[in-house]
Amino acid sequence: MRLRDLVLSLHPDERIPLFRRVAQAIQDAIRQGRLQGGQALPGTRVLSEQLGVHRATVIQAIQELEAEGWVITEPNRGTFVASLSPEAAPSFGGRALRPQVPPIAPQVVPGFDLPSRLHPLTRADAALIDLSDGLPDASLAPTEELGKAYQRALRRHGEALLQQGEPMGQALLRGQLVEWLSERRGLRLTPEQILITRGSRAALTLIALALLRDGDSVAVEHPGNRTAWDTIQQSVQVNLEGVPVDGAGLDVDALRGLLARRPCKAVYVTPQRQFPTTATLSPARRSQLLELAAEHRIPLIEDDYDSGLSFGDQPLPALASLDTRGQVIYTTNLGRLLAPGIRLGCIVGSATLIDRLARVQRNLEMQGDRVMEWAAAELIRDGELGRQLRKARKVYEGRMRFLVDRLQGGLGEALEVHPPGGGLALWIKFRQAQVASRWIDAMRIRGLVLNQPETYFQASPEPFTRMGFSQCSEEVLGEAVGRMTQALSDIS
Fold first, then answer.
1. What is the Rg, in whole angstroms, of the alpha carbon atoms belonging to the chain?
2. How many domains does the chain have?
3. Does residue 482 contact residue 410 with C-beta atoms inside 8 Å?
4. Which of 189, 212, 371, 476 lies at a CB distance of 3.0 to 4.6 Å from 472, suitable for a disulfide?
């Protein structure tokens, strides 16, 4: 493909003939790998306009480069970078002996110190089975229906949807979410109480930036969701205060004791399916938590991250459905119901709060994909998302029971595991605490990824980890259990 805009820098030394400086600039682009063998150069008229020189000067520079073997000119086609560079190897008969190879870009390190809170990116390895958490299976997503809805949105409303749009998100989607959240989570609300976000992490970022200040304290569940902890702390430098969790969810009495000792500006909680333990916050504790939050006038950030994925029994209504005093800020992740690559969530709160959060989102240019928002609204309106969830729940429950049976049958003496009431992952206890870390390391060597216990604990980690099941077939889950068994033999 012929380039139209090639940025070239002419040598400033005017003692060098101008045509030679043009030739040197093109040579430098080839040496740097910006121009590669077989690539067409811009036309001489385009180069002369970009460089501000006469076209005859450019033609002379091209002739010089051709004579030196840097480029090849083909009649009626144009000028192309030579496949064999004159500098690639010692020449024989005026030709290079090996093809031109683009140079490796130099590794540039920052010329300043990076904050310690910025951890390096963990990159996926296709050879590994990563079950460190549960993810929706993209192969189950309604791709055909979503694609058609996306195309309809562009075809019918493209000009409007490609504008900047409403700061609170696509009105059609907010209207559909009023009905969806009312039916499935018991919320009574209006579209003005909904802010569309780019997923749950974006929602947490907005809430943290809007409501918290450096040095504030935030109460979080312990064990808890380190991704949420990191998201909050990357937004604002707050102190996280751990509150114990048991089989009935967050220990509200422990939270009451914490608030008596130290004021907190917010409480982050996952009441439907506590992350990572999968425990459900009991009805009694829900009432107590709302009373405590009202007493101290602090917001409860309810992360309802996978409430639509319950097995068997009807899930409890959202904590926000019981809130009559505006204490709860509700967040959910629609992408988690469809596919990992769909970044689509929402925040629900008082209209006054949503208005302020929308301003923050607009100022940060964090608004989502308005075409995708319209398409998702159509999936909800047409009942496709509901059908998708019913199908996915059956598949996920089958995979969960398969994995639990395999773990209990083959590794029951080493692990304690119970079927969760829903969600995408198991909470596993190692019966021998001293082997947990070594066993997980051995699994990694065998090609299976689970998180170390300290991922979920702020201090003094207990022998637990989380194991996803939703994204893999039963065949892959069986292979994962086999690798666990082999890893245990490796350390025995």
1. 29
2. 3
3. no
4. 476
Last residue in a domain, options 335, 357, 384:
384
- CATH number where 472 lies: 3.90.1150.10
Same domain, 378 and 305: yes
What percent of the chain is predicted at pLDDT more than 70?
93
Q: pLDDT digit string (tens) for 274-296? A: 999 999 999 999 999 999 999 99
Residue 122 has pLDDT above 70, yes or no: no
Same-domain check for residues 357 and 429: no
All residues at 6 or more sequence positions from 468 whose CB lies less than 8 Å from its CB, including other chains? 130, 131, 132, 133, 134, 135, 424, 425, 426
Task: Give me the pLDDT at residue 96, please.
Answer: 43
Tokens 């045509």, residue located = 19
- How far from 51 is each of 70, 78, 119, CA to CA, in Å? 20, 19, 43
Instruction: Give the distance, in angstroms, between the CA of residue 80 and the centroid of all CA atoms in the same chain.
Output: 41
Question: Mean of the per-residue pLDDT values for the chain?
Answer: 90
CATH of the domain at 176: 3.40.640.10
Residue 245 resides in a domain: yes
With beta carbons less than 8 A apart as the criterion, state whether 229 and 240 touch: yes
Strand partners, 422: 310
pLDDT at 118: 72
One domain, residues 299 and 407: no
Distant-in-sequence, close-in-space partners of 426: CB < 8 Å, separation ≥ 6:
278, 400, 403, 404, 407, 417, 420, 466, 467, 468, 469
460 belongs to a structural domain: yes
For residues 222 and 275, the answer to whether their CB atoms sit within 8 Å is no
Stated length of the chain: 492
- Judge whether residue 202 has pLDDT over 90: yes
Kindly indicate the confidence band of residue 87, based on its pLDDT and cuts at 50, 70 and 90.
low
Is 122 domain-assigned? no
88 pLDDT tier (thresholds 50, 70, 90): low
**For 265-272, what is the mean pLDDT?**
97
The residue segments making up the domain with residue 197 are 140-384
CATH of residue 31 = 1.10.10.10
Residue 95 three-state SS:
strand
pLDDT at 94: 45
82-96, 132-146, 292-306: the lowest-pLDDT one? 82-96
Same domain, 209 and 294: yes
Asked if 67 and 42 count as a contact pair (C-beta separation under 8 A), the reply is no
Q: Domain check: are 469 and 393 in the same one?
A: yes
CB 424 within 8 A of CB 467: no
Question: Mean pLDDT throughout 80-100?
Answer: 59
**Same domain, yes or no: 314 and 395:** no
68 φ, ψ (degrees, to nearest 5): -85, -5
